[in-house]
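Archive record
______________

***
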Amino acid sequence: MTNSEFVFTGLANGVFTIWLDRPKANAFNREMIAATQAAFKQAGRDPQVRCVLLTAKGDIFSAGQDVGEVRQVEGESFRYHLLNTYNPLILQIRRLEKPVVAGINGSVAGAALGIVMACDLRIASEDARFIVGFLGIGLAMDSAVSLLLPALIGLGRAAEFAFTNAPITAQQALAWGLVNRLAPAEELLSQAAVWAADLARGPVGAFGLAKRDFNKAVLGNLEEVLDYEAHNQDIAGRGEEHKEGVRAFLDKHSPHYT
């Protein structure tokens, strides 16, 4: 299996496992996003791969985009960034005609929330937390969060947790349909692997057709939404609220919006 510095893969029993590994919070930088895209591309091309399991090393699944890296990229619009990073990754996951299971250890936020929601099935540790994150630093939503979160938990709940930036607990996530199953933290990976192996023994061709049906019936406007999110994120990224939000985040104090 091809690996990068921050993404590792392995194949066993028809299950192609992708591990995110960028200490300490598995925050995505360009290299990590590109490596994740490459891993999903490999999964799509390899006929031995019958199911994909996406998980992460450490105590945090992913904090989303590395805020420090965004601050360092001069002259690049948020729209350009999204069109080359998260948007194609989200589409890859949805268009992969094989089941994709997310094994969610610990917290997940921002763009990473969009990534796990794009997966077909989700099993989370009992101490997992789900944080929208974007509005906490003066940004709009991206990575299909504006579409997938209301689709899974309802518009009212999605608006509340987007606006307040409060965490959704694992128990709330299970009750509301954000995740399918919970597992004790120490059993998460083993239970996720068993579930993925069961799926890999199933009619993967029919799974792929069912996934096409779901995409058409529920997510028919996914590509359009991703593009519109990128447009709005560009507006938010140039605003004073985002500048203040990033300053407060990096300096570890509460933002002061006026």
